[in-house]
């Protein structure tokens, strides 16, 4: 009897399960062939027995018949053994599939927990923890290879008014829209993160000069200042950005973020869009 395998599983079988299934299929074919041999031997022995019953005593025929019956019994026994082995093999395959399924599901849960630990739930952007980790790593590389890095601290202007006028969920949509725009314009090596509330942090890797940084800051401002449709209204919001540069403004992540934060307040006061530390 063939065991019912878990065909609804969305997880592709591993090489081990595939090879075990091949062995089982092969073994089932052998068992079927052996079972056919048993049937053929039975019918041959039946005919011989009938012939033997009609004859005078014939010792040689009697011996041959006994041997043939013994062979049939042995082959029958082999067919039964093969059935037992195949059932054990089928059980083993089901168990392996179950374990593989369990393993994949545990790995998916771990991956999801890891993602949640390092990302902001509202916008999906990297959170503070991931940003700090990337900044620490970037600083170690910058020290080793003499790179220049830039940290941008960005805060939205008068974001509270959006919440007050249009409601908190409209504010959430605005934060999500802005985050998507920021992600779209961020280079692969750079990092944009949500620091909290309406604050975002940028890490720019291997920056050549301030002209490049200013161009990036203008690009970010331009992208954020594009109108955003909220509940039928076109909302326009602007950011203030403070910029600190490694090694000029600090050689630790705390110092660079602090300098950029201070510069952001200057940009906000002067309404200049962005300012350097
Ligand atoms: N919708 C929404 N609002 C948030 C979230 N987190 C923080 N806020 C709000 O964001 C606002 C941030 O306010 P501030 O940055 O202090 O004020 P602001 O109006 O932007 O003023 P300036 O920065 O001085 O221009 C506060 O009203 C918070 O309640 C969030 O996840 N969703």
UniProtKB/TrEMBL annotation:
| Species for this entry | Methylotenera versatilis (strain 301)
Instruction: Locate the coiled-coil region(s) and give their ranges.
Output: 54-92
Domain called GGDEF: residue spans: 147-277
Name of the protein described by the UniProt record = Diguanylate cyclase
Source organism's superkingdom?
Bacteria
Q: Entry's InterPro entries?
A: DGC-Regulatory_Protein, GGDEF_dom, Nucleotide_cyclase, Rev_trsase/Diguanyl_cyclase
Keywords for this protein: Coiled coil
SMART domains per the record?
GGDEF
TM stretches of this protein: none
SUPFAM superfamilies assigned to the protein according to its UniProt record, in alphabetical order: Nucleotide cyclase
UniProt cross-references to Gene3D superfamilies, sorted A to Z: 3.30.70.270
Kindly list the GO molecular function terms attached to this UniProt entry.
catalytic activity
């Amino acid at each position: 009897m063939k065991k019912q395998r878990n065909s609804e599983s969305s997880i592709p079988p591993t090489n081990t399960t595939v090879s075990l299934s091949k062995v089982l299929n092969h073994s089932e074919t052998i068992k079927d062939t052996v079972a056919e041999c048993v049937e053929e031997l039975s019918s041959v022995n039946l005919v011989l027995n009938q012939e033997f019953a009609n004859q005078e005593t014939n010792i040689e025929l009697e011996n041959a018949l006994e041997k043939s019956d013994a062979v049939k019994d042995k082959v029958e026994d082999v067919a039964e053994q093969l059935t037992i082995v195949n059932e054990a093999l089928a059980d083993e395959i089901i168990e392996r599939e179950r374990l593989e399924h369990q393993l994949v599901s545990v790995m998916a849960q771990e991956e999801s927990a890891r993602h949640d630990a390092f990302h902001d739930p509202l916008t999906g952007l990297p959170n503070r923890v991931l940003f700090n980790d990337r900044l620490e790593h970037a600083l170690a590389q910058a020290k080793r290879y003499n790179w220049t890095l830039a940290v941008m601290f960005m805060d939205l202007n008068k974001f509270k008014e959006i919440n007050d006028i249009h409601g908190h969920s409209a504010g959430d949509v605005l934060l999500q829209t802005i985050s998507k725009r920021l992600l779209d314009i961020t280079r692969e090596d750079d990092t944009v993160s949500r620091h909290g509330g309406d604050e975002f942090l940028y890490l720019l890797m291997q920056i050549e000069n301030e002209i490049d940084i200013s161009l990036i800051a203008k690009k970010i401002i331009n992208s954020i200042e594009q109108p955003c449709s909220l509940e039928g209204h076109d909302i326009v919001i602007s950011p203030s950005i403070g910029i600190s540069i490694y090694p000029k403004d600090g050689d630790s992540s705390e110092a660079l973020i602090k300098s950029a934060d201070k510069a952001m307040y200057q940009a906000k006061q002067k309404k200049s869009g962005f300012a350097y530390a």
